[in-house]
Structures are given as C-alpha cells and as structure tokens.
Amino acid sequence: MKILIIEDDKSIAELERDYLIAAGFGCELAFDGESGLDKALRNDYDLVIIDIMLPGRDGFSVCEELRKTKDMPVIFLSARTEDIDKIRGLGLGADDYIAKPFSPSEMVARVRAHTARYKALKSGGARKPQVINVKGLSIDKDSRRVLVGQNEIILTVKEYDLLLFLIENPGIVFSKERLFDRIWGMDAIGDSSTVTVHVQRVRDKLEKYTDEKFIETVWGAGYRFAR
To answer: Which one of 2.40.30.20, 3.30.1370.10, 3.90.1150.100, 3.40.50.2300 gives the CATH number of domain 2-122?
Structure first.
C-alpha cells in the first residue's frame, strides 16, 4: 500500500515515512500544499496524511480540492488542536484527525485501521450487485457508487456510510450521538456536531440535482431518511 505524506517540516515527514515503511507501507513525500495536491490527483494512493499549516495552499484547501474527485482515506496530522479545526477538517471530508505532538505507533495503527477498512469496503465479490433505488437516488453497495438520476455523486467514506445507514433504516429517527457512535465509532476524535456538518454536506451534494429531500431533520431528536 502506498501513502502520501504532505508535511512542510521535513524531519516530521521523514519520521512518519520511516515508521510507515517499517510497518510495510510505501511512502511518498510532498513539502507544500500545491505539490502535494498535484501528486494526490495524479497518482493513486491508499491514504493521504496532510498537515494543515502548509506553505502556499493550506491543508484544508488541499483536502477540499482532493475530495472533489478522490475518495481514499485522509488523515489530518496537525499542531492545531482546537475543536473548531477538528470539526472543519472532518467536515471537509477527512476521516481522522491526529494532534501533534503525536505517537508514531498510534499514527501507524490509525493508518492500518483506515486502509484496512477502506479495502474491505471497496472489495467486491462475484456476488450479485446490491443496488438501492429510492426516489431517483441509486446506491450500488458493491462499487459504493451513488447516483441521482444520471449524475454520479462523489461522497467521502464517512458521507457514504452515513447516507447508507440512514437509507437502510428509513423513517427511523437517530440522534446525532447515535449516528456519531455508529459511523465514526465510540473512540473517534470529534463529537456529535460532526454529524451535523456531514449531513449538510450530503444534502448539498444530493440536492444539487433534485428537489427531493432525502434526509429530514427532526428538531430536538435527530435525523431520519424520508420514506
């Protein structure tokens, strides 16, 4: 598996690289936002690690641009530890947020977890494709493709997981806390406000091509997929 590290501090980038190589990963480095984004767009990586404070284009911008066409796992690794930065990073499509100073072994463990989960989600078998069709929305569970009409919707891993969970449980109201535990896991960094951000991003992407309202807000209770 190949990892891209976008980090302007060369000593930190090389430390990350050395630990990941020792764990059996291949690694490439970029030391600024523009070159990192260019590499990420031109090549196929299994995961990207991005610092936020980068010269030229910052990490938030890199992630936002990357998410328009790529859906590999993204981890922010940054000295910015304010909750607002974590929420913004996760809202832009990152799958995880690690604060500096960090434990290299923990970083490797999280990379392993995200790449393994992504590989399992992407792997399809020879079985019959599983497709959900609701009100012009189509989800192919094997290929993880989402379409509204003939328009393919690019979702991040977490956005897709959230949409799929709701669509497979139509009409049931789930609190933000329940959704956060179900989609991100009880040990994930962040809080239930992350759910609000992701729900809005899914809505924006789906409703760009239709007037249908797929995810309903039940005030004071949570969210449900409209029957």
So the answer is: 3.40.50.2300
Q: What percent of the chain has pLDDT over 70?
A: 94
Q: Using 50, 70 and 90 to split pLDDT, how confident is the model at 187?
A: low
The tens digit of pLDDT for each residue in 16-42 reads: 999 999 989 999 999 999 999 999 999
pLDDT of residue 194: 87
Burial 183-194 (b: 16+ CB within 10 A, else e): bbeeebbbeebb
Encode the chain in three state secondary structure: CEEEEECCCHHHHHHHHHHHHHCCCEEEEECCHHHHHHHHHHCCCCEEEECCCCCCCCHHHHHHHHCCCCCCCEEEEECCCCHHHHHHHHHCCCCEEEECCCCHHHHHHHHHHHHHHHHHHHCCCCCCCCEEEECCEEEECCCCEEEECCEEECCCHHHHHHHHHHHCCCCCCECHHHHHHHHCCCCCCCCCHHHHHHHHHHHHHHHCCCCCCCEEEECCCEEEECC
Q: Which CATH architecture has domain 131-225?
A: Orthogonal Bundle (1.10)
Four-residue CA torsion sign, 63, 67, 69, 74:
positive
> pTM of the full predicted structure?
0.57
Q: Is 144 a residue whose pLDDT tops 70? A: yes
